[in-house]
Specification:
Elements (H helix, E strand, L loop, with lengths): L6 H17 L3 H19 L4 E5 L3 E4 L8 E4 L6 E5 L1 H6 L4 H12 L4 H21 L9 E2 L9 E2 L15 E4 L10 E4 L2 H4 L20 H24 L7 H38 L7 E9 L4 E10 L8 H16 L6 H19 L3
Antiparallel strand pairs: 1-4, 2-3, 5-6, 7-8, 9-10
């Protein structure tokens, strides 16, 4: 495959063509398309059962027989579009698949005006999701942990940074300020400022909690998952958006941060599980059985999952630390054979099981 026909180049060409065609529209048509694109994006992101949008009454389209784009009228009977509805509400399905299907149908229409409208709505919806629905962050560089495919470890040494605080390095506190003076900027801790969006960083490299509670850390993780979910929604409705520089910057910055912080949250909860087991063992409340739900971050699904395994069967069996060691080793052996895990997720889970083994192996 030559460079000019590679998938990446085709996506770049399609993105450039759609942007050029959007720029060729009149200002009023551009604003109209953007308004409809916001409705489409909101329906996708909010998982609504129904979506409605309207095609403009006229559009500048590229006609194969004519070298220059020409203004065409959109058939009045096809301008109003509605997807999903009562059936989706009954089945609790969102409109995502139906909306993509409808836009595909419209874009394949033999009517060039209809086809062009659908393509521009895809483009404008993806642009809105990437540029308007997502905050911009810092310029960051991550490195991979060993031979992992996704870089997740920040490389920036903040000790060498300027003392001047940038807007992305601090959170603005609300409150009255003296007239003529700027807002009060409260800098994030250095560990947080190494990431793309410091506001959502909950742990440092040593699994230390940087926010007020685990629930706050979980909320931050949910915000990062939603960020990536919006990027995925944008690329699903308009695959060529991945050729956009801002899309790539936001995906790179947030993907590394999400996986890093997701693993840190899982490790923090694992440490809490270890401490809870030790406390209950000391109080003699673990002599009737013990099963563990060990959290880990799946970097394919991009969310916290749990693996459940039995340590002590139900019954009157005295707790012995060696039971935890044995259960952790047996679970590790199972997961090494489990093809559902990719190498980096398996490595992360193995490290947590080793934490369990080490914590109780020293007590044997």
């Amino acid at each position: 495959m030559t460079e000019t026909t590679s998938p990446a180049n085709r996506l770049r060409e399609e993105f450039s063509e759609k942007q050029a065609l959007f720029n060729a529209q009149s200002t009023i048509v551009q604003r109209f398309i953007e308004a409809q694109a916001r409705q489409i994006a909101d329906a996708l992101i909010e998982h609504r059962p129904q979506a409605r949008f309207t095609l403009p009454d006229r559009i500048v389209a590229q006609i194969p027989q004519i070298e220059q784009p020409a203004t065409m009228t959109v058939p009045a009977g096809l301008r109003e579009q509605s997807v999903g509805g009562f059936r989706n509400r009954l089945t609790r399905q969102d409109v995502r698949e139906a909306l993509r299907h409808r836009l595909n149908e419209l874009e394949q229409s033999p009517d060039h005006a209809i086809s062009t409208c659908a393509g521009l709505l895809r483009h404008a919806s993806a642009i809105h999701m990437v540029y308007n629905m997502l905050p911009s962050g810092r310029s960051v560089t991550y490195r991979s942990d060993g031979d992992e495919d996704i870089p997740t470890i920040p490389t920036e040494d903040l000790a060498l940074e300027s003392a001047i605080t940038q807007a992305s390095d601090a959170i603005t506190e609300d409150g009255n300020s003296d007239e003529g003076r700027g807002d009060l900027q409260v800098p994030f801790v250095p560990a947080a400022r190494r990431f793309y969006l410091p506001l959502w960083v909950s742990f440092d490299d040593n699994n230390k909690l940087l926010v007020g509670s685990v629930k706050e850390a979980e909320a931050n993780l949910a915000s990062m998952e939603r960020f990536i979910g919006i990027l995925h929604a944008a690329s699903s409705i308009a695959p060529f958006i991945i050729a956009d520089e801002e899309y790539q910057k936001k995906r790179y910055g947030m993907l590394g941060q999400l996986i890093n912080q997701g693993r840190a949250l899982a490790r923090y909860k694992t440490i809490d599980i270890i401490n809870t087991i030790k406390d209950r063992a000391n109080s003699g409340t673990l002599n009737r059985g013990l099963s563990l739900s060990l959290p880990y971050f799946d970097d394919q699904e991009l969310k916290i999952e749990t693996t459940i395994f039995e340590v002590i069967p139900a019954g009157r069996i005295m707790f012995v630390p060696a039971f935890v060691v044995r259960a952790a080793r047996e679970e590790a052996a199972k997961r090494l054979q489990d093809t559902r895990f990719d190498p980096s997720t398996r490595k992360h889970l193995m490290a947590e099981l080793k934490m369990l083994e080490d914590a109780f192996g020293s007590q044997e």
